[in-house]
Design a protein that fits this description.
The structure is a single chain. The chain has about 220 residues and is of the alpha/beta class. It has a single domain, classed as 3-Layer(aba) Sandwich (Rossmann fold), CATH 3.40.50.300. The protein is about 35% helix and about 30% strand. It contains 7 helices and 10 strands. A 6-stranded mixed beta sheet has the order 6-7-8-3-9-10, with helices on both faces. Strands 2-1-4-5 form a 4-stranded antiparallel beta sheet, with helices on one face. The chain is globular and about 50 Å long. The structure holds adenosine-5'-triphosphate and magnesium ion (MG). Adenosine-5'-triphosphate (ATP) binds next to strand 1, strand 2 and helix 1.
């Protein structure tokens, strides 16, 4: 479902160039639940962005379901992402002036779907139907995280990327969020790539990848 070949990405800070991704070759299968671990600054977010089409690699390619992501034109790529890829950002990225329901409805609206109904179904899946009319500022961190997950799944993506989806949550809420993600993979065949610091949480997955020194092992 996800295949990469020779991904390279470096950042220039002043005169120094740091190679964050140093030739990454990956194969992730349909419906697989993969965790991505590694020390802070190792490049987990950079890799996830690159896999999701949010950051073009300097070298190499990313195939999602056979589509070469970075060979698509800008509009085509945005449409492909909207349809096939869900992304839960490291710090939620909810729009503060929109309610939970409105936040979840955004990707559906872009795709021109019946977005309110789909958004309500997605909120129900993450157990937040009764918070549909709340603003992010009126919700706890765990609730906001669940809204972000609902938004990521509203268009029924084939692939879901989640960057530290339990980063700031207590251990019970973390387990709940992981269970929701695992259920999506088990019941709907979604391919999951989840970044976590918590090796314990990663045990529920099929495979754990570790990124270090620009390489994945
Ligand atoms: N836009 C940027 N400009 C310059 N350097 C960057 C940029 N984005 C990331 N980096 C650098 O690339 C490296 C990898 O960053 P990245 O955010 O991918 O790490 P991470 O593994 O997700 O870390 P964390 O666990 O803290 O979230 C870091 O050294 C970071 O400083
Ligand atoms: Mg990160």
């Amino acid at each position: 479902m996800i295949e990469t070949k020779g991904l390279h990405r470096s950042y220039r800070i002043g005169k120094k160039s740091i190679e964050v991704l140093h030739g990454i070759d990956l194969q992730i299968y349909k419906g697989e639940k993969v965790f991505l671990c590694g020390p802070s600054g190792a490049g987990k977010t950079t890799l996830l962005y690159t896999l999701a089409g949010l950051e073009r690699p300097e070298l190499g390619s990313v195939y999602i379901a056979g589509t070469d992501l970075y060979q698509l034109g800008r509009k085509q790529q945005a449409a492909f992402r909207n349809r096939s890829i869900g992304y839960v950002f490291q710090n939620y990225h909810l729009l503060p002036e929109l309610t939970a329901l409105e936040n979840v409805a955004v990707p559906g609206a872009i795709a021109g779907l019946n977005h309110n109904e789909a958004a309500m179904i997605a909120l129900e899946r993450v157990g937040l139907k009764d918070r549909a009319d709340h603003l992010p500022s009126e919700m706890s961190g765990g609730e906001q995280q669940r809204v972000a997950i609902a938004r990521a799944i509203v268009n029924q993506p084939n692939v879901l990327f989640a960057d530290e989806p339990t980063g700031n949550l207590d251990s019970n809420t973390s387990k709940e969020i992981m269970e929701i993600l695992m259920q999506l993979a088990d019941e709907q065949g979604v391919t999951l790539v989840v970044v976590t610091h918590d090796r314990g949480l990663a045990e529920v997955g099929d495979r754990t990848l570790v990124i270090k020194d620009g390489k994945v092992t």
